[in-house]
Amino acid sequence: MLVVDYSALAILLLGAFLSYKYKKLTLSAALVGGVTGALIFAASGYCGIMMMAAFFITGTAATAWKAREKQQLRGAEGDKKPRKASQVIANAGVAGLLGAVALVIPQYNIILQLLIASTFCTATADTWSSELGTIYGKRFINILTLKPDKPGLDGVISLEGTFIGVIGSLLIALIYSISKGDYSALGWLVLCGTLGNLVDSVLGAALERKSYLKNDAVNFLNTLAAALCMLLIIWLRS
């Protein structure tokens, strides 16, 4: 029997409404975000909602931080439009799919919770490192060639930006660990988040620059990579 948690439902509806009202998400994105959040809640409970909220709130803040300076560095106009549904799916779609799997095979719920947490670790790491690394990075290199490159371009990283991404992963890992009262997976979550972030950079340099993949596809794949990384760790440690 399906039991509805009306408190969680109210939180998700309020979050979707406020995101749309304050033009952080389009209407379709807010609806997709609400459904995705419900699926994540199905597997991870309030911990899942907190991780999703932490990613969205901190990611929005990181994007807004010194936006004009980033525009100048990147040599392009800023995009202040609300996020589209495709962007929600790109960052939280894998977590939502894992939540749906939890409804079908609830006996694997604990594993699925870790996979969901790893996706938000890498989504947060990616956003923090790209948005804040552009501002605070000192030396930028292409991740494939290791040669100096222009900040803000696909596949360009810096030591400072990578470290900021690790901190972003750590934030989500702490939310998960504190919520569960178990810190045994803390380091593994940070590792998966960081590796997923590096996968994003590799895909950006190798495929996105050549227009083989769009940014949304790259973001979806980096969260998938983080989940697969965590699954491999669980398998090796079992």
Q: Which features does this protein show?
A:
two-stranded antiparallel ribbon; 238 residues; single chain
Description:
Helix 4 runs parallel beside helix 8 and helix 5 crosses helix 8. Helix content is 75%, strand content 3%. It has 8 helices and 2 strands, in the order αααααββααα. It has 238 residues and is mainly alpha-helical. It has a two-stranded antiparallel ribbon. The chain starts with 5 loop residues before the first helix and ends with a helix.
Average pLDDT level: 93
Q: Termini distance?
A: 32 Å
Form type = globular
Helical content class: over 70%
Strand order of the largest sheet: 1-2
Please tell me how large the radius of gyration is. 17 Å
> Number of helix segments?
8
Structural class: mainly alpha
Share of residues in strands: under 5%
Output the helix-strand order: HHHHHEEHHH
Can you count the beta strands?
A: 2
**Low-confidence stretches at least 5 residues in length (pLDDT < 50)?**
none
Main beta sheet: 2 strands, antiparallel
